[in-house]
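Summary of Year 1 activities. Much of the first year was spent building the evaluation harness for sequence design. The harness presents a backbone, in tokenized form, and records the residue chosen at every position. We chose the following record to illustrate the format because it has been used consistently in internal testing since the harness was completed.
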């Protein structure tokens, strides 16, 4: 394949535009947070992200390289097709459910990160445990999409994969470093526009190629391969349901999502953003679906790709850039490449910022350096943005099963964090003992179920398991959802059991080593008083505690407008039941 100078120039111009927008956004908002809350301004944008920009940035966070590449691949792969392209519907419903049930309580209480409620109810130890799967999910996701971007660029303009990955990562890290959420949000607007324009421009050219049969015919009739509408075999129904629930419910407890929710100017706006992003995800999936259908309708023998189709060459995951390269004019394929690059950057920068935000605030500040100044937190955030970005880049370059690691970590988000989030927000009376038990029960059930992508053999064989052609065990039973439900009910059951044993006197108070039931006013729980402003709300359970007099801690979890939000007035006084 020849080296395309025009493609390289197009990518450089696109990257420079993105970098310029990111730096401009940082300069435009350089005075935000000057009153001592600069770290909060970087994390949640000063809580003044507007409806339009907010809708764009939330949509762009989901519509990443994995989203559009994966959707096109699912539609293209023979025997699967559109029936298995679950991401568009699954993630859209995830945003709807998040908007209906999770956005309002999180935003109205003025939290800064997703981990704040865990540390409020369960203490900093449990917050640290929840941080592990949350960090893994964000890091492996960023690494996976960096890897996909490198392969995509190499397909179209034939340059070294490593160079393209490193340059793309440096651009995303740089503007995230200087501007935080402001830069990420404003670049998302440009990136989402590029994705929409680039893919939709490519579709009619690819569809009109002489080697492409009418996709309406190939949708229901076998021409070059099985119909691209696809179907779900009866034995695979439970796998389909398990994966769909993972996308729909496991797509909620991500810091990248709640960062947008918490940056909204009000709780009502946070809900509206979620609904708009759900619609945006569906719209942005349409060109990817069409490109997958075009790939399934192409006689590749009539193209320069060769006689062997992408599936046989084991390049089905690259069907989107292959269609752009071989079925579109050169100048159009470069537009499409810009779209893919935009999609990757819009997700990677969000993941890197999310990981650094949680570490700087919930691990460094609240667990180790509670007296840290705002300036110190900002520098910790900047350092971790660079470190996490470099780590994701290194994994993209070195790890052979990045996607497998991401699949496993996203499962852990669904199985561990989602049930914990349900309990901490909606189930009164849960405590640290239940949270830890639920955490480890869910983790054990997931790991013992195996992971085909990592060649991890199962220790527990559920009904319906089988060996595939590669001699890998596959579980048909929806064991991921079983693990999630087990984690949820274990949390509740152990919490109430611990509460009964301590309050009935069966166990002495000194055994409450986590200070979760009897020792309500312990040093551990003393930090919880800083979750709310004393002049806004009184928690009877914590009233006797003298909070530490620290400038940082006095406004640690809730900004002063949090509880004056006109569109949400939660009965936070019931918080003591937790």
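For this record, the design step produced the sequence shown next.
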């Amino acid at each position: 394949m020849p080296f395309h100078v025009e493609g390289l120039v197009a990518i450089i111009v696109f990257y420079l535009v993105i970098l310029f927008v990111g730096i401009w956004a940082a300069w435009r908002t350089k005075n935000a947070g000057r009153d001592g809350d600069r770290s909060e301004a970087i994390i949640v944008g000063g809580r003044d992200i507007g409806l339009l920009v907010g809708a764009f940035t939330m949509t762009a966070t989901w519509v990443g390289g994995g989203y559009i590449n994966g959707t096109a691949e699912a539609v293209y792969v023979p025997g699967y097709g559109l029936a298995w392209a679950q991401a568009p519907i699954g993630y859209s419903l995830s945003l709807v459910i998040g908007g209906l049930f999770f956005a309002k309580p999180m935003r109205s209480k003025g939290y800064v990160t997703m981990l704040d409620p865990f540390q409020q109810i369960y203490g900093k130890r449990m917050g640290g445990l929840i941080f592990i799967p949350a960090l893994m999910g964000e890091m492996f996701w960023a690494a996976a999409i960096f890897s996909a971007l490198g392969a995509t660029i190499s397909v179209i303009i034939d340059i070294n994969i490593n160079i393209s990955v490193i340059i793309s990562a440096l651009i995303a890290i740089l503007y995230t470093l200087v501007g935080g959420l402001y830069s990420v949000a404003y670049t998302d607007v440009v990136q989402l526009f590029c994705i929409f324009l680039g893919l939709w421009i490519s579709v009619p050219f690819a569809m009109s190629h002489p080697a492409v049969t009418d996709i309406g015919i190939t949708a229901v009739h076998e021409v070059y391969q099985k119909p691209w509408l696809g179907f779900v075999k009866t034995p695979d129904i439970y796998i389909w349901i398990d994966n769909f629930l993972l996308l729909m419910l496991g797509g909620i407890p991500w810091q990248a999502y709640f960062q947008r929710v918490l940056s909204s100017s009000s709780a009502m706006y946070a809900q509206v953003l979620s609904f708009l992003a759900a619609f945006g995800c569906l719209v942005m999936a349409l060109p990817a679906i069409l490109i997958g259908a075009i790939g399934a309708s192409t006689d590749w023998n009539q193209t320069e790709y060769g006689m062997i189709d992408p599936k046989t060459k084991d390049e089905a995951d690259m069907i989107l850039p292959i269609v752009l390269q071989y079925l579109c004019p050169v100048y159009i394929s470069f537009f499409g490449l810009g779209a893919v690059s935009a999609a990757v950057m819009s997700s990677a920068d969000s993941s890197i910022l999310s990981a650094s935000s949680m570490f700087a605030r919930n691990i460094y500040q609240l667990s180790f350096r509670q007296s840290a100044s705002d300036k110190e937190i900002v520098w910790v955030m900047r350092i971790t943005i660079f470190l996490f970005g470099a780590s994701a880049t290194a994994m993209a370059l070195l790890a052979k099963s990045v996607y497998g690691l991401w699949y496993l970590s996203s499962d852990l988000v669904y199985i561990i964090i989602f049930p914990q989030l349900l309990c901490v927000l909606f189930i009164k009376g849960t405590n640290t003992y239940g949270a830890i038990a639920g955490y480890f029960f869910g983790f054990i059930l997931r790991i013992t179920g195996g992971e085909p992508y990592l060649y991890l053999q199962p220790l527990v064989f559920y009904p319906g398991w089988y060996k595939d052609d590669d001699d890998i065990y596959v579980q048909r039973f929806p064991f991921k959802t079983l693990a999630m439900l087990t984690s949820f009910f274990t949390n509740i059951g152990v919490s109430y059991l611990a509460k009964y044993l301590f309050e009935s006197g069966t166990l002495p108070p000194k055994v409450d080593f986590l200070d979760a039931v009897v020792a309500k006013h312990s040093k551990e729980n003393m930090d919880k008083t800083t979750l709310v402003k004393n002049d806004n709300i009184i928690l009877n359970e914590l009233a006797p505690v003298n909070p530490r007099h620290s400038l940082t801690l006095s406004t640690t979890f809730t900004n002063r407008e949090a509880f004056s939000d006109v569109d949400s007035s939660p009965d936070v006084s019931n918080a003591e039941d937790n």
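Residues 196 and 219 are 24 Å apart (CA to CA). Quantitative recovery figures across the full test set are reported in Table 2.
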